[in-house]
Give the backbone structure.
Amino acid sequence: MSSWRECKLGECIEVINGYAFKSQNFLEEQIENSLPVVKIKNVANGDVNLKAVQFHLFDKSLEKYLIQKNDVLIALTGNHPQAITQVVGEASKYKLNDLAFLNQRVANIKAKENMSNDFLYYFLKDDASHDYLASQSSGSANQANISKSDIENMPISLPPLEEQKAIAEVLSSLDDKIDLLHRQNQTLESLAQTLFRQWFIEEAKEEWEEKPLSKIADFLNGLACQKFPPQNDIEKLPVLKIKDLKDGISENSDYATSDVKPEYIVNNGDVIFAWSASLMVKIWDGEQCVLNQHLFKVTSKDFPKWFYYHWCKYHLDNFIAISSAHATTMGHIKRGDLDEAMCVIPSNEELVKMDDEISPIFEKIETNSRQIKSLEKMRDTLLPKLLSGEIRVKI
């Protein structure tokens, strides 16, 4: 550790705040000589996405606000970590090949010659960095803000450049494996969905029986988990809520007693259907937990998992439209909507042949998902130990 240097992050970086683009100049579709604009909503969970982006015409005066592949971005506005939506100080890496503009409330953090860009990214991803920036932020819990100087004044134990690169390489190798498995799963899910549509939508046979979704699977509504508080610190499980389907169980999740009926326990691989607010269907890939209200656990004694999962996914767009139609404060669907969602049922012999083809795809997806969780846990365990010097990397 004698070669590590205590300093301020500002000695190693340049902070470039995003530009305050005028809303009237945004374009809804990309045209020639325009670029996407990355806003704070696009900066989350380690990667920058371009979902629902707007565009802006290129102008040479805006070159300072261009971002390119591998740039490290940070959210300057958001929630404190205890109220996760968009966490203030959340760092992301721009992994896309296309140039883009950076909007206000997000900053581009440029590593200087004495710092590795990848090491910078992992330093900002560390919980200790989150906690520091949250402690420096101003405003309320729902609208916390950090400044350029808050980032520059953050203390850092800086290893020599070669050791920075070695640390980042260890962590990057884990992230690369995680990214590869995610891409594999996207391909496998697309393949399974294509097969399902071909069999049951495009080439469905007239003689096949029709049944409502509510008859091919059981939809168990969750518990009002606040009525089932943990009795001690041992016999308890995290509560699975709608937000956890997106973000996963975290240290901020609620807990309930594990002494509930077994059917209300959610295990890795269970199909979960959020029927209120943000409607979605997901195969749960997290830890064991308790099913909360506004969620269905979907099971079937008669049909394989892929069959009822894909029928739920097939009808989801219609359910979302129904939810939006009678939304006042929070849209939802009713059990009657499940009764009206029709599904075609092949013969037992045909279903067995289909199952032989598609079940291995589902098993591979679930195996990959478990491996992803294991690698993420390993990375998150190593990250603070490597950044603190508790674990050293041979150069």
User: Anything to note?
Assistant: Residues 161-202 form the longest helix (42 residues). The chain has a mean pLDDT of 91. Residues 277 and 328 are 11 Å apart (CA to CA).
